[in-house]
Design goal:
The protein has nine helices and five strands, in the order H-H-H-H-H-H-H-E-H-E-E-H-E-E. It is of the alpha+beta class and 202 residues long. It is globular.
Length: 202
């Protein structure tokens, strides 16, 4: 996740939204299928993502993480069901990916979330940060891979699209407060929104 304002209106926010819809419709999103949903050819789609400083795989991984976190908060939702819902063939592959995203197993995360009422600082929702581009406003603000971004400017985030929308609304050049959760601790950072240079490779 990079703290930048996307170019255009069919960048990562729109792509992430379509990927999430595909997951909800129990489809496995592919680059071709999502490009078709957005009404553009595959090459145009790739170029648009490149201009935004991201890749299709990165967007899918981010949405997978957000959807998985959301589903694991639901009582009675089995890990294997979450795995299938976000495009894995079995629970083993999903568990390995989830550990890569969060540093813990799905069962450990669920146990923590179940006890969240005993932890007043625990987030109810959020967006998992799988990567921080260096240098960037996010890295300069002290955001680290593994953090969970729970709010921007005091507004709670439930998905990657929420995050992107808040950046659009704030606008380039504005400084925003970022509420994050790291290793059981809540903290607030401040960062200035900047536009990612188009000539900077992801």
């Amino acid at each position: 996740m990079r703290l930048v304002l996307p170019h255009g209106r069919q960048g990562p926010e729109a792509v992430g939204e379509q990927v999430r819809i595909a997951f909800e419709e129990q489809e496995r999103p592919t680059r071709t299928s999502i490009a078709k949903r957005l009404g553009m050819g595959d090459r145009t789609f790739q170029r648009r993502l490149h201009d935004e400083g991201t890749t299709f795989r990165a967007v899918v991984e981010q949405e997978r993480g957000s959807v998985a976190l959301s589903m694991l908060r639901e009582p009675g939702c089995r890990v294997v069901d979450v795995a299938f819902a976000v495009g894995f063939d079995d629970a083993t592959g999903f568990t390995k990916a989830f550990q890569r995203w969060t540093g813990e197993s799905p069962s450990t995360y669920r146990a923590w979330f179940t006890k969240r009422d005993e932890l007043p600082e625990a987030p109810r929702a959020g967006v998992y940060i799988d990567d921080v581009f260096v240098p960037s406003p996010a890295s300069e603000a002290g955001i680290e891979a593994g953090d969970v971004l729970v709010a921007v400017g005091g507004r709670e985030l439930l998905s990657v699209s929420d995050f992107q929308r808040e950046l659009y609304l704030a606008g380039v050049g504005r400084e925003v407060s970022l509420s994050i959760h790291r290793g059981g601790n809540a903290m607030t950072k401040r960062a200035k929104i900047e536009q990612r240079p188009k000539d900077l490779l992801p």
